[in-house]
Amino acid sequence: MFRKTRLFTPGPTPLLPAAQFAMASADIHHRTAEFRALYSKVLAQLKLFVGTQNDVIVLSSSGTGAMEAAVSNLTSPGDRVLVLSAGKFGERWVALAKAFGCQVDLVSAPYGQTFDPSQIRAALHADTRAVFVQATETSTAVRHCIQSIAETVRTSAPQALLVVDGITGLGTTHFDVDAWGIDVLIGGSQKAVMIPPGLAYLSVSERAWAAMETSKNPRYYFDLRKERKVAPKGESAYTPAVALIAGLGAALDYIAGQADGDLVEGRKLLIENAQTCAAMTRAGLTALGFTLFAPDAPAAAATAVAVPEGLDSGAVVKTLKARFGAVIANGQGEMQGKIFRIAHLGFFDYMDTIALLGALEFIARDPLRLPVQFGQAVAAAQQVFASRQAAPADPNTCLCGRDQCCRN
Amino acid sequence: MFRKTRLFTPGPTPLLPAAQFAMASADIHHRTAEFRALYSKVLAQLKLFVGTQNDVIVLSSSGTGAMEAAVSNLTSPGDRVLVLSAGKFGERWVALAKAFGCQVDLVSAPYGQTFDPSQIRAALHADTRAVFVQATETSTAVRHCIQSIAETVRTSAPQALLVVDGITGLGTTHFDVDAWGIDVLIGGSQKAVMIPPGLAYLSVSERAWAAMETSKNPRYYFDLRKERKVAPKGESAYTPAVALIAGLGAALDYIAGQADGDLVEGRKLLIENAQTCAAMTRAGLTALGFTLFAPDAPAAAATAVAVPEGLDSGAVVKTLKARFGAVIANGQGEMQGKIFRIAHLGFFDYMDTIALLGALEFIARDPLRLPVQFGQAVAAAQQVFASRQAAPADPNTCLCGRDQCCRN
After folding, report:
1. Which tens digits make up the pLDDT trace of A190-213?
2. Does B2 contact A382 at a Cβ distance shorter than 8 Å?
3. Which of A49, A116, A293, B380 makes an SS bond possible with A304, Cβ 3.0 to 4.6 Å?
4. Whether B44 and B148 share a structural domain
5. Which residues of A fall within a CB distance of 8 Å from B374?
6. Are A213 and A294 members of one domain?
7. ipTM of the complex
8. CA B81 to CA B73: how far, in whole Å?
9. pTM confidence score
């Protein structure tokens, strides 16, 4: 039988057709009025999408490039920084900070969990230059409560810059960037904004711009001050990934179009969409007997589940691809073989979610021989969808998933 | 929540991405070596796809254009022809034959049913010039048994030309064109070959070519002899729809690619694919309590179901589109409001079928308030899929769905 290739990976995510068309027709030179108009529009849209009055800078790089930009622009060799790490991307902050000569304090949480606020408080010092954290740790599908972390940082080490990797958080969870005091918030193109990899974007606070003047780490391509200087003219410092910028503009238009052209409202719907797909998926997989890997703080960006003892999660990934063409993600590093991950960020809908659960429950029976019934995961997901239709969730509510929000 | 637009209509059908890319890059003049190479390749592929040694001619028109070509090229005013009609497209044969001055004998069957072989035998005469029939009547989702009809025609009126509208039959049911003696078999681009509307193609037997020499009906754009004359040079008589031809070539490559480059085997898999989607859908809708509109002779091209008394099938179509973005077809003509139709021909797979059933069973409960359970249709479809995996159907078997094949 035919098997369409369908990405259910937490980046790259399925491409938006309108963005594909925009990319295919982006036959534009980057030093022209045509490009300047496009780029100015996209930069303005990104401020609405990120939800900030701060400048938003676009880099032609992967998200890791923007993470490096945050480290290299904001720190000097020997600076004390705090990294909050609970997975592969937290570990990337450690590696980046060390690569740029920082002295790293570390608060870590086991894979699948989020941080203990008291440990964060204890690890903040008067000379902590910056705090680096993920909004959602993509490798474990855990959501960290950035609102709570920001409050702790502001209270315990007000001088510290707060740098948040929102690469899979943007478009899946709410941020009040300026009110919470997020100095840098980083996004990537191949995530909730539904275009291919190749662009990163980051909002930068006035405090962060000021801090760059005293930072002594070397940077050239990722020197954010150069981008800030030319951005108001609709230019980028170096040759930008023009087609991706055209695609990003089309994707942001699409998101705004979900709410009659209001991008701020459209972003809320995008977040709610991911949260609904995630809630449906959690219910479906739980009904099949899988164990949620991050039950206390599940991200809406992706869902991670542990496979039963004796089963290799890689076999689930491979069988699903071979049987039905759907691509989900294995665990990374030491979680490889133990968990698999399903994305919800970006261009997914009810029918995608049902289709994936209908494929997973099929392979759960054959060849995996798990004791499940046909229709079981689908029905559980439909029940969740029906409940959310009846009583929509507020996308701005903290979703810590605990009786008491982790801010308390 | 996001709603992706998904076509489940029996033409146009979902576009194959590889064909979309080929169409987008078809910047070719049609009187060049480049186009001649493309067109020669596509004409050769079509002979394999149709499964015939006869010439296959391509027209830049809808399928109705090729139906007109069959009538205008093969008949003269006053000719006696037999039309077998059991739906809107059968009625189109009547209208076309009358428009070209033919004297029409009619064997009809009620909507949702196929023909009584004895009535066909009785309606064939020594002066019947041609017989016109659908392989699958798209308006009712009924499959007529062309093998049986061909045998009847060959036996009872051997002089009669057999013209088959296979617009939704090609790629969903098996034809042995040359062995059965099908003089003209017509296909359309927006059907199982997964590209947009705008091309029709038809195989023409030597008997039919000879008959054209004595046919006196007027024709110019649709004069098949003109196309036959220039086709061996890779040319078309008039400006062809170049992008669609490029797309068709890519689609036929894709079908061949399903069977390691063997287009004949790929066509069998395409048929089997539609038959599997159809069988899953029939089981799913039956589980929801819908009544199959064509239980005795269901087509694999599409499934038609009757809605319960008091329910408007248009409401199902509209609600499905509004809630989930999926587009199915209402009944046509007097069947409007009474049935809805779901396509399986072309680029559909297991996950599409599950997704649609998962959407239909949701709206069946809310807002249609039918007494169904979540997961019920999906589970029934999964059961069918599992059975077919265990014991694949032979796509060359007659699928009359009767205890005794209609050929007997």
Report:
1. 999 999 999 999 999 999 999 999
2. no
3. A293
4. yes
5. 375, 378-379, 382-383, 386
6. no
7. 0.92
8. 13
9. 0.94
